[in-house]
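Handout, section 4.2: multi-component inputs.
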Amino acid sequence: MSRWSYFGRRLALSVPVIVFGTTLTFLMIYMGPIDPVSAILGQQYTPDAARRIEQNLGLNQPFWGQYIDFMINMFTFDLGRSWVISPGTTAVDMLTIYAPRTIWLGFWAVLIPLFIGIPLGFYAGLNPNTWNDYIASFGGIVWRAMPNFWLAVILVSVLSQSKQLFGWEWASFIVQTNIVTPPTLDFLAQPLDAIRDPHAFWIDNTDGNGSFLAALKQTLPASIVLGSASMGNEMRIGRTAVLETINSNYVETARAKGLKNSVIVWKHVFRNALIPLVPIITGEAFLLLGGSVLVEYVFAINGLGYLFFQAIMQGDLPLVGTLMYIFILLLVAINITQDLLYTLIDPRVGYESE
Amino acid sequence: MSELSPRDTEDEEPLRDRIAANPRPAAIWAGVMGALLVVEAGALVHMFFEGLSIVLGGLPGEPAVALAESAMAAASEIPTLLSRELIPNQGYHNGSQWVGTFMGLSPGVSWAIRASLTTAYGFVFIWWLWRGYRVYRTHYRYADWTPRDDQFDRFSRHSWGKFGLIVVILFVIMAVFAPTLGPTTLEQNITDPYSNTIETWDAENQEVVEITAGEANIGSGSKGGSSNVGPLTYDDFERFHPFGTLPSGKDLFTFMMYGSRLSMFIALSSIVISGFIAAGLALATAYYKGLADLVTVVVSDSVQAIPVLMLAILIAVLFSDHWIAGLYNGGVLLVLLFSVVYWPFLWRAVRGPSFQVSEEDWVDAAKSFGQRPRTIMQKHMLPYIVGYLLIYGSMSLGGIIVSVAGLSYLGIGITPPTPEWGRAINLGQPYVASASWHIALIPGLMITLVVTGLNALGDGIRDAIDPQSEGGTADEAAVGGGA
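Output:
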């Protein structure tokens, strides 16, 4: 089977997965124990209002009609509207407001652990069974076991009291920012400013559009917390992968040929040790999407996770359905990307055995 | 029933006859075991009926709940070593000496004695279970050696795994002996503080006064600054608090002990249930292959395509008024939820091994021999995949514990005032950087320790079962649980 037909099959298989997941969401939200109409109306329940909402949501139709409508709407990206959080706003508009913050947070939550976890893991793997290795490995294991939300709670408190605790204030460090706050990302709307007005784009935070540095600082603690589990994972896997490759035959051959140690490490060990890290890195997306609810809640970053939590708690069930659908789509897309990346990096893996 | 089990083909005496032939080692072992059980009989019977009343309470109509509860009360009358009645720690200082505590010692020391004796008892009990296996191995087993022996030996050389085992045993002891370990009781501390009284010494009038535990709690809350009862200190009512108090003045240690009960119940039951589902599906799909496998792949992919924590939040909120959420304060709902969510991870983990074993010659042989598929799966395939289930199961436990804590941090899932570790973190959040740092810090450290222990145990089991594995596969990314 060629790479592309494998990829095609993978795509085809993802369709029933999306249908099944979306159906499950539909069943829970529209057929579950909570009636969306009374959830939306809450205290202001009147039969008239209820009928109007039923009409709008199509809940007065028979089960199959509702189900088919819901599925068609989702698959044609007619995603409906919010009913409680911001009545009348379309889900697409909500997404354009909330999603960038989550993406910004997720981007750093993937990137930062990569630059800490992998080097640490490789270092531990190149110096196995030394004290530094033990400290790094044990640190990674404990780091991975810590609950994200707890780490977030502790970090928020420590940062907000940093003046009393360390005599150094985080809030006014380099640029003035709040500690729990959604990052201001308006500066991204004018990417040309990066060259035209670099001070305003990169550093200055006073015009209300935010700046790169301020936005990074606002999300930095949250993204470190969110990425903490994957950092531990990357370290562990990186260490094992280096240990495995360093003892393999081709490295021995290279050594026998008299290659310099640095060449062996950079050309032969690192590149091959990266392969098992690919699923870890893409797998982070799962953790990021799920974990973002708690971390965004603690750090008050108004992203998708926060929106999802608010929507559920306030009974905005139609919006919850849409968000679930988006998350399912995202995860399936990430999964396929992962498989594709895997076959691109290491042609031996994967599709032959499927 | 035409098939022959391997036992029947050899002329092997049943275990009972072998013990009858050489009863001494077994008798000694059983004697000590019996003694260990008898001294704690009251607690065991109590726990049995408590479990029973939870199960009965779940059935519609609640039949026989009253019966189970009266049996529970009767069980409290059975004398029990290591109970709070025998080694009491609640008393008062009447100016010259302690009254009402164990041998007139201070409440802190009395509690420490009871807690350490209980912990020691737990470890001795586990050690006797292990001795039982050793006795069986040396005296009653025919085979001098089985692969299982090597696995045990490998594990006993694995110090990281042993560290995990000790942490997990401690966690289990906390959950099992929660009523004995806490310096105060669940009713007095959490569920019904205003119907329970404590005695305290009024120094002004030189007399004993009786006040409700609720009143005393109001005066001993930890809210940072001057109002704080930290770890290992006494409050104004001469009650000892090993972990300090909550902002409401409730004892954090008692809270943690009962919280571990709930965490363990949810994590263990969900993994057992999803393990059963995963094992059943893995055997069936590996045996029949083709369409059965494809359907399971699609279903499990779909379940995995839904973010765990979001699904948990969604279900916990949607079902919050449903009768299922009333069972065990929402615990049963979470068990069902995590069972549904976790089986695909476990199934993925054993799918490969079960496909491998289905290709083995002995499975073919069994087929041509005319054995029924069910028997083949159970006898010839299942033992091969149980080890993998153990590894991944023990590693997923931590993820579930963290997820449950995360949910109750958000205030959903487990209904207050039922103790859950995540809620303590939520309660302590405003005081992290104050004098009352212990409220949020201790539960978090405990979760970290338990999860580390479970991961270490999983590593140990993996290295014991499969010494060739280098560890660190992609599946471990799922272990964190995303909370």
